Amino acid sequence: PKTIRLKDYREPPFLIDQVDLRVELFEDGARVHSRLDVRRNPSVQPESELHLDGEDLKLEEVTLNGEHLSASRYVVEDSQLTIRDMPDSAVVGVVTWIKPQENTRLEGLYKSSGMFCTQCEAEGFRRITYYLDRPDVMARFRTRIEADLKRYPILLANGNEVDRSPLEEGRHQVTWEDPFPKPAYLFALVGGDLVERHDSFETVSGRNVALRMYVEPRNQEKCDHALAALKRAMRWDEEVYGREYDLDVFMIVAVDDFNMGAMENKGLNIFNSSCVLASPETATDAIYDRIESIVAHEYFHNWSGNRVTCRDWFQLSLKEGFTVFRDSEYSADQGSRTVNRIDSVNMLRTAQFAEDSGPMAHPIRPAEYMEITNFYTVTIYEKGAEVVRMIHSLLGPELFRAGSDLYFERHDGQAVTTDDFVRAMEDASGRDLTQFRRWYDQAGTPELAIEDSYDAASQTYRLSISQSCPPTPGQPEKAPFHLPFELGLLGTDGQDLELQLEGSEPSGRSMVLDITEPRQEFVFTNITARPVPSLLRGFTAPVRLRYPWTRDQLMFLISHDSDGFNRWDASQRLATDVIEALAEGREAEVDARLVSACSALLKNDALDPALVAKMLSLPSLAYLIELTPSADVLKLHQAREQVLTSLARSLRDDLHEVYQRHPAPAAYRYTSEDMAARALRNMALAWLLSINDEQALKLARSQYGQANNMTDRLGALRAVVNSDFAEARQTLLDDFYQQWQADPQVVELWFAVQAASPQAGTLPHIKALMEHAAFDWKNPNKVRSVIGAFAGQNLVNFHAPDGSGYSFLAEQVIRLDPSNPQIAARLVSPLTRWKKFKPETADAMQRALREVMGQPKLSRDTYEIVSKGLS
Ligand code: DPP
Ligand code: ZN
């Protein structure tokens, strides 16, 4: 496969102003008639040939200004249609025949449980018709869809409906027009027998927007949450960013077979069912939260992505990083800001830091790729969002808003670069972000080493911050980053001290330092006793922090830090330190201080219960592995279990008390308060079951049976499945499947609970799940909920010392690659992390990778990940 490089970017030699599509949907295929108004791009050197992208298309006809083109005027190759002697402007007509029914890649036009739908980002449109399939070619689309009226009464495309009429032979047509020029990746089309849920939204300027959600009839009771979230997001974007919706209708469609979570097609968002459908009985709190943020995310793309889009795919983080930042701020405004931040950072530190230290490490604006779908990564998304967040911290909310206003105003209707974004922020704020731009070019996670000293005589506290960044593929040396570093200093009474830097005015009780140099020193004056520093409050920069915390300091921060995020962080550092000491054999018993910290938390009524639940959650095995060079998975797992069971034993009565103190209310409500209570209740249950507490088993059974919501039902099920109560495990699992087998989203939860469980998810069980009637290779959600959950969450079993987990994964990747390369490439990535593990483990993981690499016909997607993974 070819490597595509940012430095080779050239403007397109031709532009397309208008696209007229006529799509005929049939049971054995689809015919696409396309008419493109093409003209030569005046700003580049003229070329005589027009090259249109196309893949897996059967070309039936080519015309130029309505005339058939003779065979000598065009050439069809593997992935291109070339028209020779192209005039300055012409209407290019192309007719292609495609087979959506056989499209298992789920890119382009395909069929999912009886409905036609599309996924065009990044390069799916070229699987529908020949086109200049690149984001800097923006055109107005008119789309006429023709299909059988009975089977496909609903026919949707981008924009507004402008025409509909019956046709012969029981067919009908509906025509849509999108007034906004857009790149082809935002094109969408849907045809099916769907029910429609209506709602409406009045925009800030008083326009009425029709909101419509289209789902299969069995899902019509699962739309309320997404519609409510959509309206909240529309209001929020008006209030916080001054962005109003711009069409008369906004549509959401739920599709069962979908590679991604959702897609922001102009006016017609298409969602993976698992990211949009919910009812209290079928979806957990975590799913409710996920839907809230994804609905908002896709909606926010209407401005950050659609109105202003990317010039090329190297700029993907322009829209994704910014939009993730926007959706996470939105979510923070809906519930607890601190808990929200904890969730984002937890995932960043577990998954993104791991990516940054592995063979696929790339800057948020990569310099090259083979297959762009491999770059929809936690780096582009989550680290991209952190970079935008740093700009927000450096500029402050007002100047940041001025910058985003300028960005949207200056570039509306354009395809631009991350540099244009940063320049708008600079121009609006007057700040120089030259050095800051390194975040876009340099990969890797910077490390900040902190040293401090206190001088009683001069009452000064000295803090030195040194930064460095480990090498990443192709980048041995890094220049220093510019980052905001928020901190506070806690006095002996636990209160924040007044901060005054030597030679400056007092700056309050929490301040943001500008870090730009390899090493910087800060001297705080009027400090009467040695303080405990609260470093990197709110996680103001995506970096690793090194500071020799003592356990007593961590205990102190846990009980006193005014920054909720750092309280949580201290709890995680303390638990991590205890677990590591056990794993390395430096300590034999669980430090009593951890027990007393947890006991105090369980009894703490003053703290937000949601925060308490987060603080009590032990660091995940994935996170522990990420922190440990040459990790021994089994040892880490055993040490973590030892901590968990020893806490549960010591705190047994407290846990029962917490469980009783948070009974389930009569009706489910999606409120922070109720969710926090459910989190605590289910955590207590899980801890108690980890020590085979018979009384807790009774509680779990009754909670399982009586729950009026999926959070509690699944919480009880998961706790039992992860426990040693093998008989109860099987009874509840069978019962659950009996009850929910007709609901694919719930069946996916049922699969994942088993596949992710150290108890239930050993390899023979995983294989049995794959033989289950509900498992379906063609459905990415099923593949993810069994194989993905096993390799990504069930780390003890996946890393079984005999290497069976690795060869199993390799086999599944090889099997999936021909039909769905995008998902196969995602699935294989845990194997590429081999450098993290002790040598025997690393060897076995590489052997599995080589097995995949040895396949004769690997897709470009999987080839890129595996070949880079082996280097
Ligand atoms: N649909 C994906 C997202 O919104 C890709 N744009 O992030
Ligand atoms: Zn996105």
- Overall form: globular
In the CATH hierarchy, what is the architecture of the domain at 4-285 at level 2?
A: Sandwich
Radius of gyration: 28 Å
By CATH reckoning, the class of the domain at 4-285 would read Mainly Beta
What is this structure's SSE topology?
Blueprint: E1 4-5, E2 14-25, E3 30-40, E4 50-53, E5 58-64, E6 67-68, E7 74-77, E8 80-83, E9 89-98, E10 108-112, E11 115-119, E12 139-148, E13 154-157, E14 160-166, E15 171-182, E16 189-192, E17 195-202, E18 208-215, H1 224-241, E19 249-255, E20 262-263, E21 268-272, H2 285-300, E22 309-310, H3 316-334, H4 337-356, E23 368-369, H5 378-395, H6 397-411, E24 415-416, H7 418-429, H8 438-441, E25 447-455, E26 460-468, E27 483-490, E28 511-515, E29 519-524, E30 532-535, E31 544-546, H9 551-560, H10 564-583, H11 592-603, H12 609-616, H13 621-627, H14 633-650, H15 652-661, H16 672-690, H17 694-706, H18 710-721, H19 726-740, H20 744-755, H21 763-771, H22 780-793, H23 795-798, H24 804-816, H25 821-828, H26 839-853, H27 860-869
Parallel strand pairs: 2-12, 18-19, 19-21, 22-24, 25-31
Antiparallel strand pairs: 1-23, 2-3, 3-9, 4-8, 5-6, 5-9, 7-8, 10-11, 12-15, 13-16, 14-15, 17-18, 20-21, 25-26, 26-29, 27-28, 27-30
Helix pairs in contact: 1-2, 2-3, 3-4, 3-5, 4-5, 4-10, 4-13, 5-6, 6-7, 9-10, 10-12, 10-14, 12-16, 15-16, 16-18, 17-18, 18-20, 19-20, 20-22, 24-25, 24-26, 25-27, 26-27
Bound molecules: diaminopropanoic acid (DPP) and zinc ion (ZN).
Diaminopropanoic acid binds at residues 121, 260, 262-264, 297-298, 301, 320.
